[in-house]
Amino acid sequence: MSVSAVAIGVPTGLAGWKLLQSKTPADFKAFTKDPVLQRDIAYLREKLPTKLTAQELLADRRLQAMVLQAYGLDKQIGFDALMRKVLDSNPDDDSSTAARMVDYRYRQIAADLNYGGISIPEIPAVLSSTTLQMEGVMTGQTFTSFNGTMGGVKVEGVNLEGMTKRSDIAAALQAAFQKADGGRGDITVQALGVKIIFSDAKGRGKSDFTFIADPDSTPRAYLLSESAGSQRVAGSGGPKVTDSATIDAIVAKFTQARFEESLGQSSDSLRRAVYAKRLLPQIANWYSVIADRNLATVVQAALGLPDSFGQIDVDRQKTILEQRMDIADFKDLAKLGKIIERYVAQSSIEEAKAFASGGLSSLVQPVYWGRDSFDGSAAAALLSTVMTR
């Protein structure tokens, strides 16, 4: 159960709206410490990174509900067939289901999760190696030291005095390279007969070796072969649910949506106002406003349009809205603030009247929250049709 607006210290009406202008959900400790919210966030963080396909995400009904609520798509909870088509859409394909939806939230969730995005698999590293032939190493005839670079890792002054076995020389060189490489085991040095083989599992490139011996001694090392290899190329595209930044962004969206839900328990006007302030600046066409019942309610009330306005043909609604204001005004925070403040002032009067008459319960948590302005489960398909006219 969410924490109510009264419990977290937000008054209703314009006083509450003005307070919310300088606050974020994190400022309301009763809300952020709500154990139900904390459990849901922990579940989201744990489970979402494991859902590597849209089908797996949708099969987890609890997780599905939280993710869709984060994007304001509560109305589609349980409509798995449509949401799978949306989530499996390639965000870069203008003919995909998500791209054809007039409501930008479908395109946003498809792009953010990227289940349908082009995926380029990882190209593993190809081993780089250098093989030397080592001759003349015997008792009294040994190298004194070694300097070299392998895979960009440099060692100097490795002591080889007294080492007559190639295996001992290889072990000393491997220990030096691995220490210089931060203790990692990617660089190996092996003795094979009269050969010494240097390898780098990361494929970081060619080598440069210098074995130092007394001028009159017999030890010599000759280059036999060299392979540059290639470094790993990370995969790209595909699901982003394993990306921590994506998870953090969805958690933030979910937390904000739950905060707005808590406001709605005492004042649905404040809930709609905060919701509209967050979403309207991202709206690029009037159909997206018309399609979202809550945005439509705010805009219609602010423009003085009657409740019956939402019942007329959608194209006629679009024409009237265009005549009343420029949709670009939503991106002007000052103009948007006035629009929402006008809505809050008007709706607060209605809430006060309802409270006085004992009807406040009819205004709180309305059954239509989150639904499209069009009734029925075919709403999303209708939106797609409207956009492609």
Short description:
The chain is an alpha+beta fold and 389 residues long. 44% of the residues lie in helices and 13% in strands. A four-stranded antiparallel sheet has the order 5-6-2-8. A three-stranded antiparallel sheet has the order 4-3-7, covered by helices on one side.
Structural class: alpha+beta
Tell me the overall shape: elongated
What's the SSE pattern?
HHHHHHHHEEEEHEEEEEHHHHHHH
Just give the CATH class of the largest domain.
Mainly Alpha
Number of domains: 2
What proportion of the residues is helical, as a percent range? 40-55%
Could you give the distance between the termini? Answer: 43 Å
CATH topological fold name of the largest domain: AGR_C_984p-like
Number of helices: 16
The major sheet is characterized as:
4 strands, antiparallel
Please name the CATH architecture of the largest domain: Orthogonal Bundle
Our estimate of the beta-strand percent is 5-15%
- How many runs of DSSP E, i.e. beta strands? 9
Query: Which strand order do you get reading across the main beta sheet?
Result: 5-6-2-8
Q: What is the mean pLDDT?
A: 88
Task: State the fourth-level CATH superfamily of the largest domain.
Answer: AGR C 984p-like
Report the uncertain regions: 360-368, 371-389
Keywords: Cell projection, Cilium, Flagellum
Protein name: Flagellar protein
Organism: Teichococcus deserti
